[in-house]
Amino acid sequence: xxxxxxxxxxxxxxxxxxxxxxxxxxxxxxxxxxxxxxxxxxxxxxxxxxxxxxxxxxxxxxxxxxxxxxxxxxxxxxxxxxxxxxxxxxxxxxxxxxxxxxxxxxxxxxxxxxxxxxxxxxxxxxxxxxxxxxxxxxxxxxxxxxxxxxxxxxxxxxxxxxxxxxxxxxxxxxxxxxxxxxxxxxxxxxxxxxxxxxxxxxxxxxxxxxxxxxxxxxxxxxxxxxxxxxxxxxxxxxxxxxxxxxxxxxxxxxxxxxxxxxxxxxxxxxxxxxxxxxxxxxxxxxxxxxxxxxxxxxxxxxxxxxxxxxxxxxxxxxxxxxxxxxxxxxxxxxxxxxxxxxxxxxxxxxxxxxxxxxx
Length: 359
Prior knowledge:
Elements: E1 2-10, H1 14-31, E2 36-41, H2 46-52, H3 60-64, E3 69-74, H4 82-96, E4 101-107, E5 126-132, E6 136-145, E7 153-159, H5 162-179, E8 183-187, H6 195-207, E9 215-219, H7 220-229, E10 236-239, H8 241-254, E11 262-266, E12 274-278, H9 295-307, H10 311-327, H11 341-358
Parallel strand pairs: 1-2, 1-3, 3-12, 5-10, 8-9, 8-10
Antiparallel strand pairs: 4-5, 4-11, 6-7, 11-12
Helix pairs in contact: 1-9, 1-11, 5-6, 7-8, 9-10, 10-11
């Protein structure tokens, strides 16, 4: 089976960490003759923007549409406004390919550390956040009136359609049903009296189709508190685009930092390619130094393998990450070590090969 993967290394440390992710995929290809991967790289991103005045080729979506997956490194570069990098590349791909499901695993891996107290209850961090990825506050709807005048008014409209809200909630219920886990909805119905009241009502409606799934519902401020004081109460979480963006970074902070945070932008119907990325950003301050942590990028590779239906390899990659974290022979400076980005990737491949041969 050959899978075509479009690689967008992007900016800053993006090329460095994706190189190690591709190294892992090439190792798997050598170990498993039934799998083959082909890669095509695209130089898009903020650095591309500074030279060409655009974040990607005009026909970029057309070029990407026939790939099986997209592997993104990082986007962001000094001098390029964040709203340009977000709207003209990331959101363009997410919306163009209807990647309406964002999956963010938040798991305290073996060998990783948490800023929480050394309490077994507070170390029980293992949840999957299912974030709506196509509308909400990121729909781009609104207006800027009387710009530059004393009566200046800015309107940012959150868009919550019946289709968009129901399909993300139903997708989360399906994951919860299949995994036998509880599902928690995070909203803010007491303050957002249209969008979040609607969200809560749809969640209740869809829950009637899944009587076997235990459900909970929290206001986002309370949920943020419980993420810190009792993270074990969360298994599968479903929430809106904006709230999901915020609480997943909170979760990443609890589970070892953004260097261990991976994300998948999924088109469940598989009409278009899905996109996989570490979510740590381009970190221009350390770009080119060879010290960036590639583990989130490699975790994204695990998500790619799961998406392709090779959960066995996805699990092996995650186990290899935990082994490297636990043994501490090749940890980057952010994890208390002195290993280079490349050395971590090489060690991951060695562990992966050793585990596979000993199975």
